[in-house]
Amino acid sequence: MLCRDDDFRKTQFVPQSTLLEPNNVIPSWEFGGEEKKEVSTTMRKLRQKYDNIHKTVLSKQNELEELKKKLEMAKNDETTVEDSNYRKNSGLKNTKGQLDTLKDNHDMEMMLQRTYKHMINRMQQDLIACQISANELHESHKSKMAISEEETDKNRKAKQAKE
Hints:
Elements: H1 5-10, H2 27-30, H3 34-162
């Protein structure tokens, strides 16, 4: 059975009757003159050859369709893997950026902590120095008050003695 390309595409999945079937005999060609028999035999062989080629083409096209489906599935898998890798890489970059930010913040806080500790140590040293100085001034004041009282007592005794 001869068919055009459009008809072939439309009916490629529908089984077609071919000359390979034993019941497919054209009686007018089988009974006739010698020349008709030769033409008939040659035509039959050509049609059988065409039918064999046509079956081979159909099977190859089916194989091609299956390979195309497999290729499409592989492309989809590849896209899925690429998307997954992209998300992982972007997440990793974000995590590295966050880690850098945390390190910078930690370094800044450590610097501030060292600064505050230095300031507290300095204030404690200044407090101790002030307390020492205050104690020295207090002792100096006591001794000067004692000297002043002695002198006041001497002056009073001297006045009383003059009188």
